[in-house]
Structures are given as structure tokens and as C-alpha cells.
Amino acid sequence: MALTIGDTAPDFTAQTTDGPIDFHEWIGDSWAVLFSHPRDFTPVCTTELGYMARIKPDFDSRNVKIIGISVDPMDNHEQWAKDIEETQGTAPNYPMIADTDFKVAKLYEMLPHDVEGDPTARTPAQNSTLRNVFVIGPDKKIKLVLVYPMTTGRNFDEVLRVIDSLQLTANHQVATPAQWKQGDNVIIAGSVSDEQARAKYPDGWEAPRPYLRIVPSP
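Given the sequence above, the corresponding C-alpha cells read:
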């Protein structure tokens, strides 16, 4: 069974460009985004790593830590970072895991458990399933899983939008509608009875259907 929303994010120790980490300890009381790459020096991933570096302050302001992963060794990560800086304008300013034994990729069900050998002997196509985004909460539970093809760059603005929704709905018993962004109206969660909603929203709400109760964002 692949990891899914609500599962505990597997813990691990790993070597990264910022030194060794224990993943759950590294997350601490923050949120986290773990995003994977088939190999170093791949073109789409090069643009993604540069973009994430540029918008890292947006994640920082939401108490979200960023960490990338590829099966390449550390010296490749270091050389790739130079390429990223030269071509994208910003080098990665967050840790990159060197998953040379495929341990993390297997823990997160991104590669088959029988994969072994020299990671640099594998082609990006052989690792094409290493294109995941996991959003993990402070409770170490997986809140979002996205999987992209190698030929489509990931939309990290959308990841930020989802994090805004996750953090809002975690604190306020609401849900967010299609195309929601910060400041838009929200929906009273189905777990909240009308009686409870009246206590929370004394001015009432808009209800085109009894199950669709719309209120301003808290």
C-alpha cells in the first residue's frame, strides 16, 4: 500500500547537504515539505530546485521546512547546486538528502524494495517515480501527496496554497472550496452542527444548500 493522507510519515536518518538529520527531530514543531527527484542534473528538477530556493521565505513565514531528495551522492549535489545557481539565479538554500542506498525512496514507496546497487548507474527514467511532494504536519502525519511526471514541472505556488488551507482548516473547523486562496470565503465543516455553527457565527451564513454553509474566512 502506498503512503497516503493520514499516515505517519516514516522516520529516518540521512546524510544531507546540511549534515546528518533525524527526520522527525528535524521537523520538530514545524510543517515540512519533502520533494523527490529522479537523479541530479535533470532539467525539469533543476528549474524546480531553483524556484523553491527563491520562494523559501514564503515557506519560512508559514513555519514550513523544505527538504529535497535524490539518490545521487553528496558531491553530485554540490556540483548540481552550482549549476542551479548559475542557470536559475539561486542555489538550493535548504537540505538535499543523498539517498545513495535508496532507503528513504523505499520507505516512502517511491521505488520498489528490490532496487539496489550503484545509484549513479541508474537512469532518471528508471527512477521516474521519484517525483513526489509530501506535505507533513507537526504531528508527523502526511497531509498531502502529489505525484508528477518527469516532463511536467511542479507548481509550488499550489503547494503553498494547500498549506494555507491545511493550516487554516486545522485551527478553525472549516473547509476551503475550489480555487480558494487566502482571504476568500470558506465552508463550515460538515462535522459542525447548525447549533454549534450558530454559536460560532451569530451573524449566520449563506447556505445555497443545507450542507453548503459559506462564511467569511476566520
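The mean pLDDT is 97. Try to locate this feature in the C-alpha cell string yourself.
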